[in-house]
Amino acid sequence: MLGDTEIDPSLLAPPVIADVPPTPVLTPPVTPPKPKVPVLPLVLGFLIVIILAAVFGVVYYKNKLVVTSTPSPSAIATPSLAPSLEPSSTPSASLKSSAKPSSTPVSAIKITVSPTPTPVALPTLDVRFGNPSVNIKQTYDDGLGAGRVINREYTSIQTGQFDEVSSSWSPRVTTCFHIVSNEEIKGSDLKFTFTLDDKVEVEDNLGGYDKLEPGRLYDWCRDTTSSIGKHTARLSINPSKSLKESNYNNDLARVDWENLADKIAPNYTLIGPTNTTDGTCFVASYVSDNVTAVSGLKYELKQDGGDWQNIQINKYCLRGVSGSSHSMSFKISDARGNANEQSRNFVLY
Description:
CATH architecture of the largest domain: Sandwich
CATH topology of the largest domain: Immunoglobulin-like
Structural class: alpha+beta
Order of helices and strands: HHHHEEEEEEEEEEEEEEEEEE
Number of strands: 18
CATH superfamily of the largest domain: Immunoglobulins
Number of domains: 3
Largest sheet: 5 strands, mixed
Number of helices: 4
Distance between the termini: 211 Å
Shape: rod-shaped
Radius of gyration: 61 Å
């Protein structure tokens, strides 16, 4: 056993080493293990953990992408915080996987939340009536060789009144509607309905025109009626709305008028008394009427306050006591009952 006496290093010699305890004592002092031996398993374990974490992250985000395919903003903000604690190589992979689902929800949100309406071309076709929309006129042939002449004419913004004229003049009351379109359209495609006194008379189309050019007026005319009284004519264009019009505010035209009954009595001059070999006579000369033909007039005579009697001619002669006083009334009436009555007091010849 060695003592506490200091030994001079120079005196050290192999014999001293021979006195050292057996081999276990001569083993070099134990030093702490170097990092090389335990670090390898630790690194392998750490790598295994990282790989498992990466695999778990990939599987997680794939499942997340399938489950959250619906447009939800939460898919963008769901990256896990765990990858941020691991090496930089792993988060980069996780960010790539999270970026894929984020693009789909963003586009879906734009469509669902803020949809942009698809532009639809609005119809621009407008078929309407001109101004005035219709005019109505009465025409006749007075037999004087001048042909057909216009008696009176009115528009849809006026009140029409037509005097009755002779039926032998073939009077006609005609309505003409003025139609205009802002776009070219086939006449056969444009339908209409015409009513007279609230009764449908015509349902047809403007096939008489090959086409209606934009901005031009086209007329549809019809002879209506010459009957006495008030009348109303209407024309409705595109009544079924089968055309893609943009405006239906001026698709109905109306005109009102009245055919006035004759109120003018026949005109004549009563000549007499005239003393002839036939007695004391009276003659209705220059007979005329504005409507009824002369042959259709009615002649009547009343003597000395008696009753009216029909006579066949326009002449009347009376015989009796010479110098006696009498009275006589002569009346001519037309087909409407308008009468022109004239009277005379006289003394027999």
